[in-house]
Amino acid sequence: MALTNTAPIPELYVSAESAQKLKFEAGNLLSWDLTPRQICDLELLMNGGFNPLKGFLTEADYDGVVENMRLADGTLWPMPITLDVSEKFAEGLEPGTDIALRDQEGVILAIMSVSDKWVPNKAKEAEKVFGADDLAHPAVNYLHNIAGPVYLGGPVTGIQQPVHYDFKARRDTPNELRAYFRKMGWRKIVAFQTRNPLHRAHQELTFRAAREAEANLVIHPVVGMTKPGDVDHFTRVRCYEAVLDKYPAATTHMSLLNLAMRMAGPREAVWHGMIRRNHGFTHFIVGRDHAGPGKNSQGKDFYGPYDAQDLFKKHQDEIGVTMVDFKHMVYVQEKAQYYPANEVPEGCTVLDISGTELRRRLREGLEIPEWFSFPEVVRELRRTSPPRAKQGFTVFFTGLSGSGKSTIANALMVKLMEMGGRPTTLLDGDVVRKHLSSELGFSKEHRDINIKRIGYVASEITKNGGIAICAPIAPYTATRRAVREMIEAYGAFIEVHVATSVEECEKRDRKGLYKLAREGKIKEFTGISDPYEAPEAPELRVDTEGLDVDYCAQQVILKLESMGLIKA
């Protein structure tokens, strides 16, 4: 009997000849440019990673998945995989139409036959899938502030795989992995899912898991989209490669998974299990708080530490993969080795370094002990995240027109240039309007575009080790958050709320703008006819009333010093 985990599984690609023909025909179709997340989803649809899905979910399938983790026909499937598009694109689109799906370079990857078009209840989706309609959850924020308002569903015909220029030899489709297991004669294979660099505790844990299951081990890290703020996948893969030779080559393999994670905890664990089954795995390691996004807006964890394991166990037979539950591993000083936290010999000293503590040590250039991580891994991490005083960062002033943002920003720039050491750029509102955004007006949409442009330039400056100082009004929380995420991928983001009252700003009104707004001659003026959403938890709040500029700029300098961004 053929073993099911090594037999080929169905893909959605057509043959090479048909692909050529379809590509030609698809040139005349209405086309949608896929977002990075949609490209990840499409790749796993086409290569069988999302089997049994034949395309993006129809409305009936979506409703079932949101409600009770089942497709309309009753099959287990925990995650909505939908094509979200803009209202404008959806407007003239009738179900029954074919559309071309293109990557960001315009290459046609697939044709989708649109069978359904609907406007989802996103609050309900957040509640059911992620457990709470709380914007502190990255996927809920994505749902409300980034994803399009209209969903399309329907089958997909695959024309070609998305192109990856990096780590080509390490990327395997489900069928390529299955063929590898067939060739190697591997029957039991345990997958280790990770979005973080591997340290000694992980190695110990994966060794134990493989031993317990008497299985071969595949390190199967996610290199699609993880959580904003995670270590970038280039650095992580270099870290994995650095530790791979600590594993026995005959029983261990590493393969990269181009998945866009949702950080959905329990549902995500079930989803990961099903994706691993499609890749030919028989066992899967599920950790404490598997795929958890961290804290909610009340400061509590979104999911309980064992919720993911419980839900996985409940559906294990249907998932078709055996769970290996992950013990929290700690280092026991007296024994000089790792133990599961619940098996530590009595009276022994436990040493552990949390992720937060590790980041602090990297940031401050402190020692990272060898019992915790491999010198090769630490070396890679230090290359990507040098100590804070050598990293780029962005200071982002926000406040009403006339609050004093630009004046303080100017003073701050001069103080930082006096210190020297890093190139410093001031992205002032008026200057940006002139050079980057001259065609934009002042509608909400245009103001958002302007702020995101400023954020993009600041993120590039930060990435390259410089200091960016921005001083736009930036009245909307969601836009400021988007800019924060753009920048925090590369360095620190310091939000400074210049909290001068509207009355004071009106008194100072040099340009006479408030007067014109009061007379109705300027529409959508922040603070008068348009809201200003004050930041709830900025890194620093300054009120300029009765204080001189020098003092306010000095407060920012002190904040930067306390964060380790400039040397005291």
From TrEMBL:
Q: Which Gene3D superfamilies does the protein's record reference? A: HUPs, P-loop containing nucleotide triphosphate hydrolases, Sulfate adenylyltransferase
CDD domains listed in its UniProt record: APSK (cd02027), ATPS (cd00517)
Indicate the segments forming the Sulphate adenylyltransferase catalytic domain, all copies: 171-383
Tell me its EC number(s), please.
2.7.1.25
The residue ranges of the APS kinase domain are 391-543
| Annotated keywords | ATP-binding, Kinase, Nucleotide-binding, Nucleotidyltransferase, Phosphoprotein, Transferase
Q: Example GO biological process term?
A: sulfate assimilation, phosphoadenylyl sulfate reduction by phosphoadenylyl-sulfate reductase (thioredoxin)
Recorded metabolic or biological pathway in which this protein acts = Sulfur metabolism; hydrogen sulfide biosynthesis; sulfite from sulfate: step 2/3
Reactions that this protein is recorded to catalyse: sulfate + ATP + H(+) = adenosine 5'-phosphosulfate + diphosphate; adenosine 5'-phosphosulfate + ATP = 3'-phosphoadenylyl sulfate + ADP + H(+)
Q: Which residues bind ATP?
A: G399, L400, S401, G402, S403, G404, K405, S406
Gene Ontology CC terms, in alphabetical order: cytoplasm
Instruction: Classify the source by domain of life.
Output: Bacteria
Q: Which family does it belong to?
A: Belongs to the APS kinase family.
Described purpose of this protein according to its UniProt entry: Catalyzes the synthesis of activated sulfate.
Can you say what this protein is called? Adenylyl-sulfate kinase
Q: Which organism is it from?
A: Gemmobacter megaterium
Which gene name does the record give?
cysC
